[in-house]
Amino acid sequence: MGQFLHEFFSPLDFIRSTPQVWDGFKLNIQLMLVAEALVLVLALLLAIVRGLPGRAAVPLRAAAIVYTDFFRGTPLILVLLLVQGFAQLNYVGLSSQTLFRTGLIALTLVYTAYVTEVYRAGIESVHPSQRMAARSLGLSYMQAMRYVVLPQAIRRVIPPLLNDFIGLQKDTALVTIIGLTEAVAQAGFYSSNYLNDTAYMVAAIFFIFLTIPLARFTDYIIKERERRERAQAV
Amino acid sequence: MSANGHFVSLQGVTKRFGDLEVLHGIDLDVAEHNVVCLIGASGSGKSTLLRCINLLEQVEAGTIVVDGQTITGTKVDVNRLRQKIGIVFQAYNLFPHMTVLQNVTLAPRKALGISRDKAEAHARALLRQIGLEEKADEFPDRLSGGQQQRVAIVRALATGPKLMLLDEITSALDPQLIGEVLELVRELADSGMTMIVATHEMSFAREVASKVCFLDAGVIREEGTPEQIFSSPREERTREFLARVLEAGRL
Fold first, then answer.
1. Do the Cβ atoms of A139 and B106 come within 8 Å?
2. ipTM over 0.85
């Protein structure tokens, strides 16, 4: 028992490793913030493209489907390696700047595919009569989308969307595979230097503290909506 | 006005959903300031006909002329056309995420490009006319069905349409709420609005219609003045339909 506690919960190693792991964790936070912002916008555009009507939009719709199928089906770790391979192919070198971009692109590619589907489900959940009413007032397709369909759709998908973002936050740890020294990598360095795994617990705690507020916020939004809908039903 | 003096003119309008032909060669003329009521059983094509007139449905054959413009051809600006034609649906279809005022001002602001202040002033004036000004900042959920439908009518009027299409607008309402909606439609008719009204309210049709058309299986089986259709229908099918309505009314 004492050995177990020492291996994972040594106070000395806890204090000593925290600054080092935190140093790496800043990278996770950066990746997460930039990727989430990109994903929010790109996935929305892709979801709109997937829903475009008419025969003229067939190639666009098909491209969007191929995209989501590919990046939803491919493990993130593979996408990271593929994007890295692509970067090396173009001789862009291996500066930390490039590595950061590589990780960011891979995370964005994969999570855009997930979130596109979330948005799409939201758009499809808005009753067609809403769009019809908007069009009948003389609004264009895109105006009906922007002012009538999307506001209702996005409101409905906020909980699943935040859920995907929790996944994204944790998956920022995977960029360690392409050589970015984020929190898990730093913890690994510490662990092999001092032959003690407490640094991994420190990294775990950082991740947990990052996701808990988001998870509670998701719960709050779901509850709040249930409350409102019950109020309406009375 | 189109060449033959009618504000709306349909010739040979045919609409199919897959193998199902919903409208077979409909001819219909509506003069300006007139109210035409479409009666007939559910599924007879009344709603589809209305939707074809503002191009929510594409017709397979035939021509529709509205205000001198052939709208069934190519190169029709559907958005511009729909600003001239208001449609009100059975299920109101108000936008639940917007207040009453936002519902009414959306099309004037975004489709017509009217400033927010102007659009809101106009919307409030319209809401005042129907006694709902104090509901301007409420969400539709807070309103009764009758109030929601009156807001939907005002929303359709806000772009200044020259033609109103009413698609069974009282069918989803509790009986005690029907009156307030019909009263508003009556006022519209009195103000000279050209209207095509699909309805199951026979006494209302009798009162406001300039012309009544009986639709049956996608054709206009009989048309005439309300007096003629309701008092001395010529067609057997019309008599049967009216007898059924009468019976349902008694039950």
1. yes
2. yes
Distance from CA of A165 to the nearest CA of B (A): 25
Considering only CB atoms, B79 lies closest to which of A129, A139, A152, namely A139
CA nearest to A103, candidates A117, A90, A84: A84
| Chains A & B: contacts with CB separation below 8 Å | 58
Nearest to B104 by CA among B159, B41, B185: B159
> pLDDT grade, residue A93 (50/70/90)?
low
Task: Give the containing element (helix H, strand E) for B8.
Answer: strand B8-17
CA distance A182 to chain B (A): 42
Q: Quick one: pLDDT band at residue B149, thresholds 50, 70, 90?
A: very high
What's the pTM?
0.88
Matching residue, tokens 């509850």 = A223
What are the DSSP calls for B223-241, one per residue? Answer: EE-HHHHHHS--SHHHHHH
The mean pLDDT value of chain A amounts to: 91
Tokens of A1: 């028992």
Query: What is the spatial distance between Cα B66 and Cα A203, in angstroms, rounded to a whole number?
Result: 70
Q: For B231-240, how does the pLDDT look when each residue is reduced to its tens digit (9 = 90+)? A: 999 999 999 9
Residue type, A26: K
